[in-house]
Specification:
single chain; about 600 residues; mainly alpha; two-stranded antiparallel sheet; two-stranded antiparallel ribbon; about 65% helix; globular
Amino acid sequence: MYLRVFLSLLLFSCHRGVTSGSGILRNQAAARSAGLSSNTTLTMTMPESSNDECDRVMNRSAADRCAFVKSTPDCTMADGFINYLYTVFCLLPPNLTPLTITLCIIWLLFLFVILGLTASKFFCPNLSAISSTLHLSHNVAGVTFLALGNGAPDIFSAMAAFSHPHTAGLAVGALFGAGIFVTTVVAGNVALVKPFTVASRPFLRDVIFYMTAVFWTFLMLYRGTVTLGETLGYMSLYVVYVLTVIISTYIYNRQKYSVNTSVQSVTHIPEEFHSSDSSDDDIPCLTGGTIQQDYDSEYRPLLPYLESTSHILLSSLNPVDHRKWRRKSWRWRALKVVKTPLEVLLLLCIPVVDPDKEDKNWRRPLNCLHLITAPLVCVLAFESGAYGEYMIQGQFPLWLLVLLLGLFLSAIVFCTTTNDCPPKYHPLFALLGFMVSAVLISAAASEVVSLLHMLGVVLSLSNTVLGLTLLAWGNSIGDCFSDITIARQGYPRMAISACFGGIIFNMLLGVGLGCLLQMVKTQSDVQFESEGFLTWVLAGSLGLSLVLSFVIVPLCHFHLGRTYGIFLLVFYAIFLVIALLTEFGKIHTVST
């Protein structure tokens, strides 16, 4: 499941950073900043990195902080629409800092809502449509397109964090923190809610691959530098994982077919046997639409009728299902009221193709409008607005050219199609929706990273502890609720499979793509800044939790009971206490 639900309040405060100009100048500033940070080789045995000079702003007096922020290159983040450090220390008075921090946390919650809503309602459905158009099997789609849809916020957050060496700790903390959270808190709650026997071979396969990924990441952090060859090899580990999933599923299906042919009298295999070793086939994102389609068919009129174009447009922009509204609780309704304005804006910008519907979710007036708004949003949001002011040959704005092309294409599509019949090229709208939602997720992830960096500076917290707490919780709490709900509905194996399968993809692709993009920008190897002993506490805790699960679960004959669930929750509580004590200096290494 990929629903990421957060209780949010809406706050928008916009101030462009002191860096301005065309996209070329902004990219050059980012490259200079990254290059400045990568000239010094860091040894990972250092107790704490000192390259992020912006951390020293809190040591200055309140009157000198604004001048320090303006004169320090590390305080100027090239990514993000808002320069949060400049806003806090230069635009707002010092006596309002507590209020500012509170408002920033509310804004952070809203950014998490944008990430989750865009991924669940637009990114993942379009990926499902693309996989259906390509006629991919469920297991291949599950470990590729569906994994990308479920892990989009984590992956884009990691890529945004790796864009600057001094925020790479956010990515490491978030990926490791989310790994511990999912494999202990989420898996523990699933075992508490619905004790069950886990599928043995898929469980061992996922744990082994995840332990390999964690160990490889640990080696990269220990060495402090990553080469291009190592990055490509690191990402190829996921290719090996995908091939292993495909081959193991093929072998299992052959064995199941042999059992069926040998026992001719058995005409129906129980569902529990079917899911005992093929948890990769349980892909709710790809199959859930069939149930909804059957449900909607009950309310379909017996006689067809023609809707007007204006009525189709207005109904398409209504995100509230009146039948669902009457069934849901008041908490769901309150959250829906908060999210509705954002959903309407996203519906205006992002097309969604649904292969499970008879009309493939073809909405002629809205889809024609998407040809105008979607490319325009991509230009304005890509690289945090870097190309919004770009001038072609210094005379013609890029956004105006995109707008004119969108108007031209929209007019052609509107004049050559009808309201009730989707065109043959309608699946291309899924590709367009995928691109727009990816750009918006990337922009929101960049804002999250910039905002967390500001909170770390103001609150004197390391990027790693912010990553393993706020960023990890924000990206994982939705999965926690959805997996527990799946377990309560009687599908604990599907929930536990989602716990381990998705985080492998997030770590390998999040770290791999982040390092690869940083290499392209700086034309050099990626170097990590040490966050001290806390990094090793985080890596060691994640490795220990996986090793214990790898040993304890087989000893329990792969039965996950309530005792095992309580053990996992206690493990996470102990880890969190140790991590916070390490952050505040209560636990530290003894220097020799």
